[in-house]
């Protein structure tokens, strides 16, 4: 269970803009620590976003997405009170889901 | 005799490992977007593009925004917007990275074909956005100069 994500969803006319800031080390598995040992790869592999129950985005990531990944996308529709839910899964099987209500 | 017992144990263990893989598999297969594993592990940009649907022709309809100069290669903001009708997938590749494919986004109906994120760029090189529209791949590349690499500690 990772740290909470920060999700901001704003209604802009007939679309909803979603900005997500995830908290994750995104280790590539190429970096070495001060002792020279390779830091094992640890990165988010899958991200899925839902608007209420409808899937609005899914993504497959490699290790080259930056640390504490930022993601922005927009979907059509969205009304006050609707839920926007974002989930990620990493290569160690850890997963985190956070949800916001549209204002 | 002993040897037989050992090889039997080994084969038993590998069979168990296989079962584990098989059990884990359906979870991933259920997702609408199947992870293009070969493309993610490809070490050169052509293999990676081949893994996500093959040769891409360049298109001016893709707006690919990357910085000309990135001071910190570990955090390079990129944004891809496709004006091609029927866009259902957007991928981002960084040529000089150990594994060029960074991310694949699946865009369902009702989602605008635009994504924005931040990527690591190992050194000065071309960044490529590949967009799949109506089953066909289109791409656009831009060079980003990196003054501090994304893979340094």
From TrEMBL, chain A:
InterPro entries: Ig-like_fold, Ig_E-set, SoxZ, SoxZ_dom. Gene3D superfamilies: Immunoglobulins. It comes from the Bacteria. Residues 8-100 form the Sulphur oxidation protein SoxZ domain. This is Sulphur oxidation protein SoxZ domain-containing protein. The lineage of its organism: Bacteria, Pseudomonadati, Pseudomonadota, Gammaproteobacteria, Lysobacterales.
From TrEMBL, chain B:
This is Ig-like SoxY domain-containing protein. It comes from the Bacteria. Residues 55-151 form the Ig-like SoxY domain.
